[in-house]
Amino acid sequence: MNSIVERLDAWLLALVFAGAMFGCWAFGRRWGRRFSSEAEEDAGTKFIDASVALLGLLSAFTFAIALGRYDQRRLAVVAESNAIGDFYTCASLLKEPYRSRLQDLIRDYAQAQLDTPHETLIGADEKKASQRCRETFARMTNIAAEAIEAGTPIALSLTNTLNNLTSSNASRLAMYQERLPWSIMVLLFLAAVFPAFLIGEKQGASQKVHLSGSFSFIVLVALVVFVILDLNEPHRGIIVVSQDPLQRVIQSMGK
Predict the structure, then answer these.
(1) CA pair distance 151, 117, nearest whole angstrom
(2) pTM over 0.85
(3) Which of 9, 76, 87, 185 is the most exposed place for a label (fewest CB within 10 A)?
(4) Which residues neighbour 216 within 8 Å (Cβ) at sequence distance 6 or greater?
């Protein structure tokens, strides 16, 4: 189920939500015409209020989760950028030829991370990028090992900054794999279509159709769902993680 959701864009899923809500509203209106409107307050109105309140609560819950995941991805980029800068600074304290070799490798790694950020990669491309990172880390480790064997006095700092870089990269990759569980998405879908059906049923029973209000309600819910899904999808969409921290750290390295 998650793989199906990942293949679809957020705007397309939002249109599915809107279409399903509109269809349930129209079906509910036709269904409600079979029943006569009562003079006193219908108890069904309370169910409408409760279902709309539940939809609002669930929307807020899923929005908070999606926004939290987005913030985690943003902070992961900052953490990796800081780790790259720290490792580059530590490498600048090495003697030649280790200093130039390691600094060039770090600069190339940072540029590759900026040119092909993992949030834009899916499937085979993501696996290739991960393999490239592992190969780069292996080369960094070999150079650091050579410098340590040569008796560098900053062996501990060099090892710690290298470990911090690999750990921050692993954390960043893990953030891209996080998605909202499909069960929550299904629950959000059901919480959206049932109020639409109940509203349509109430309007059909009362023979009073509030087209503008119903349409506005459906559009607003679809927009909220779109933002939630766009935040939940790190690989594409309108709301993407800024790569400015990587850009700044590369500029600080110079040529």
Answers:
(1) 36
(2) no
(3) 9
(4) none
Tell me: cis bond preceding 97? Omega within 30 of 0 counts.
yes
CA angle 178, 183, 189 (to 5 degrees): 110
Q: What is the pLDDT of residues 8-47, one digit of tens each?
A: 677 788 888 888 888 888 888 888 777 655 544 555 577 7
Query: Which residue's structure tokens are 């990796």?
Result: 80
Note the residue count of the chain: 255
Residue 209 CB partners (closer than 8 Å, separation 6+): 29, 203
- What DSSP designation does 38 have? P
Task: Give the whole-angstrom CA distance, residue 250 versus residue 246.
Answer: 6
CA distance 40 to 7: 49
Q: Which amino acid is at 63?
A: F
Query: At residue 226, does pLDDT exceed 80?
Result: yes
Q: Give CA–CA dist 76/181, Å, rounded.
A: 21
Which of 5-14, 139-148, 206-215 shows the lowest per-residue confidence on average (mean pLDDT)?
Answer: 5-14
If phi over 0 gives left and psi between -120 and 50 gives alpha, with beta otherwise, what is residue 8? beta
